[in-house]
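Example record

Each entry pairs one chain with its bound ligand, NAP.
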Amino acid sequence: MKPNISAIVAVTIDGKIARHSGHFTDWTSPEDKTFLRSLLDKSDAVVIGNNTYKTAAGPLSKRNCIVFTRTVHDTERRGSNLLYYNADGPSSIGVILESYRAIALLGGTQVYSYFLEHDLIDDLYLTIEPVVFGEGLDIFKCKNEATVNFHLTAVKKLNDKGTVLLHYRRPS
Ligand SMILES: NC(=O)c1ccc[n+]([C@@H]2O[C@H](COP(=O)([O-])OP(=O)(O)OC[C@H]3O[C@@H](n4cnc5c(N)ncnc54)[C@H](OP(=O)(O)O)[C@@H]3O)[C@@H](O)[C@H]2O)c1
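Structure tokens for the complex follow.
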């Protein structure tokens, strides 16, 4: 059975997820970090791109991680809870994810885009932090021009500073 896949994203007011590929996400609010942890606790695996993983391997070390990388041909297990996976290799993403129930998709841009292009995102949790970078990485950068629709199901203000959490779902 296909797991439920939730993309979890923090963005600036100008829609950026980072200044550059190696930028650690240290600019989000404590309230968003609490929300992120609670969603990770409800997930049985994390999917993440290698650029993001390199910035966050420590905090994720106790979680089941599937790391997208082209440095392996297919899949390579590196410990009991760490799997390196090449989505351009022979194993389909469906087979890789089928043993899980709830997946937290942690990005970054390349991996969010891969999941959007393959119509694999069920839920999108978008936290807007009241900051502006003026430059940086977008959430998605897709090759095709198809419009993808989501429904807004919840809006929550997380703090007095004005951090807002939006929950979108793909229409079934
Ligand atoms: N604000 C937020 O919520 C948030 C969330 C996530 C990430 N970020 C930020 O986003 C930045 C990283 O984003 P990014 O787009 O540069 O990188 P990314 O998506 O984290 O990782 C890209 C890497 O994933 C691998 N990859 C991509 N597509 C693949 C495919 N089809 N098959 C196999 N491997 C594939 C490649 O790894 P190899 O080079 O090893 O082959 C590629 O270099 C970081 O600064 C991070 O902090 C922010």
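The mean pLDDT is 96.
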